[in-house]
Amino acid sequence: MNWSLLNVVTNFNYLRYSLGIAMMFNGFPMIFFIRDTLGVGPANSVFTAIFFALALVLMLPLHLFKRLYMPNVILFNLGLGFLLLTLYYFFFMNAAGKSVADIGNYVFTFGFIILLMHVPNDVKDTLIMVFFLFSFFTNITLVYSLLTDPNWQPGMRAAVSFANEGAQPGGNPHITARNGVMCLLSAIMMLGTTKGLFTRLFLFFSILFGLGVVVISLAKSSYLGLGIAATAYFIFRFKFSDLASAVSNAFKFRNMIFIIIVLVAINYFLSRYGDIWGLLLNYWDVFEARIMDVVFTSTGVKLSDTADVDYSAMGRVSGFGEFMETLFSWDVFLGRGYKSDYLDVPLLEAWVSHGVFGFLFFAGFNFFLLVFSIREVRRNTNPLASFLAFFFLSMMVLLATGGRPYDIAFWFPYCVMIRFLGIRYLDSYKPSPVVRSLKPVTT
Questions:
Q1: What CA–CA distance (Å, rounded) separates 362 from 398?
Q2: Residue at 19 is within a domain
């Protein structure tokens, strides 16, 4: 973690690029805090549009359409193909209506892709640092929102309560959990390249902070997503030689001081706030009960005496029935049209709404994202690419558990992955040395 990258005088352009990308990538938690907790701006989609427009303005380059950088070509073609296909359906096969919000989503998504093509590769070190600081600060705003919310009590799901009338009660805990995952993963990626003792302590605290936010959000998809990311790490990157090296390094003087400080801090925290540990265990019990409910709803197998029907999972089960009806009808080829059915399973909805070509584009895009993510987990080329790889693995569960295939909550992160995941970076590319033979000069 290089604090000198925050120098506005020497790194202004990369900082504004990075802040704009972070606002697009993970802006919803900050939007909810400013709009609903602080009460700044209208409590509707107008404020969201202003926020994202500001992010795009920050990303405007001085060389617009004069200098472009190569994205991941495979991801770019598949992603753009799906977006253009759904845009065609939006205009010509749409029974749901052409809302302003949907038009805005397409405008922001295409605008974000275009501006990302102007961002240099060298921004990667600044970008991962801004990702971390942005998500860490957003976690702090969550704590403030919960402490000032009279309706929130310990044991409830952690989220910023919406201020607009008729909104979802209790806010959106999945947005909260995603920000916690982002803080946790970005801190882990920078921890391995950080040497300063106090900076390492700060990153270690941020990892625990992010994990705590994920736990109290009670978002099952984030729990499972982190499990998938951890499994991928142990399968593709972990080596027993690294474990032996870590154990030997732990006995070095500086590392021993670091470990002692961490253990003393944890012991002090638990002795001073022991009820928080009990609260976290209670959150785990609630999560376990919800998993049992999902298993019972999906399979009919009752693994615990208290298992009950999970109505959220029941909606996805019924959505699978809609998919099967489409599969055995003429709609299997062209689909039923834009937003024809809400299945809450993006992979299936891509087929139901947009036919076999929509499914192939969307599923193919995510398949190659998985391939490039696994390859990056194995190679570990740089912290930004590794972060994006693990972040995709953590959000991969949502493809079967929540959202729609064209949600900007998917596509804003997808755009960044198209630009920065699986490409050849300048500093990792080492051209072969040119061997020149010397010949005697003759006259």
A1: 14
A2: yes
